[in-house]
Amino acid sequence: MTPANLDAALGIRVRPDQEHAVAPVVKSLAEAYVHPDVAWPRLITDGGRPVGFLMAFFDIDWRLDGSVIRSGLWRLNIAAGEQGRGYGRFAVTAVAAELRRRGTKRMYVTWHPGPDGPERFYLGLGFRTNDETSGGQTVGVLDLTREPGR
After folding, report:
1. Total-model pTM
2. Of 53, 54, 92, 136, which is the most exposed, with the fewest CB atoms less than 10 Å away?
3. What is the 3-state secondary structure (H, E, C) of 46-98?
């Protein structure tokens, strides 16, 4: 994220039927501002055209007591007209690569449960549920010690 691409990021909108399941980019950027030590916001572009936004988190205190430290994908917004073109898969793969580079063994994500949520998308990328919820959302985990696609 830069001053030059802020307006492009703020213009990213998911489909109306998905708005209840993912916070808007403006909320993510506000969270990144107040959590600069753990937030990793990125605009996703294709040929200079904004197509999505992602925000990863690094080494957060999951239970707020120091007992569990996790990293993963905090937010993923793919623009309504750009979905189904592989940008979401690209975003998840990019976060996984960054986590591997940092020596992280597992990548976490949460999602809105239900038939209109992204569960199929995340399970299709290799995430597995771990019987946890966080803020009413399903928690998924991806083993980063395995080769991608296996």
Report:
1. 0.91
2. 136
3. ECCEEEEEEEEEEEEECCCCCCCEEEEEEEEEECHHHCCCCHHHHHHHHHHHH
